[in-house]
Amino acid sequence: MTWIFKYQEGESFEPIQIAIRLILAAFAFDFLDGRVARLGRRESQFGREFDSLADIVSFGVAPAFLVYRIVLYQFEQTGWLIAAIYLVCGGIRLARFNVSSALPGNHKGNEFVGFPIPSAAALVVSVTMFMMWLAGHDRELGRTRYALAGLMVMLSVLMVSNVRYPTFKYIDWTPARSVAAFAGAVVVALALAANFQVTLAALFVAYMLYGLVRPWVSKRWRREIESDESDDESPER
Questions:
Q1: Total tally of structural domains belonging to the chain
Q2: pTM listed for this prediction
């Protein structure tokens, strides 16, 4: 039955494009649902657990099958192993986040410990979309697709690591509070409109790399990049 998940050379990209759109839509809704719940004072333990269940499907299972269909099937047993490791590490990442966020005083943190699984999935599909754009047509990805296997392994490690990533939830994007943040948002929006595939992939790659170099970035620059609030130590998430 593994033929169902295989991408054949010469096959249309349309099924892959549909999967990419759905995963990116799930990322957008995941970004908004918590904020909407907080605004409406509808947060609950059930909602948090159900959200994690949706996350493991949308950002764990779906990207794993997507990359398997594109390239991992060529590695036979190793391909399944890479996909399974990504899925397991994503589950561990979600479980660790749920446990840490349930601890007293930790629900308002502005850091993630480990690469967040929604961003991992968005990175995978945005890089895939970039590769499709590089191919210049809709029938063959080319040898660049093999980089997806390495990316999946790297993201698996980062998700269960202690590398810290900012949540960016406390940035005020209005010009009245942060002109730099507002200007940056406008530039990003224009870049996305001009070249969506390149800009989106660059944004998620930059976010992944930022967490790796963040310990060597000065606190002053981190405040400028991540938040316009005080420099108080944030609780671990």
A1: 1
A2: 0.83
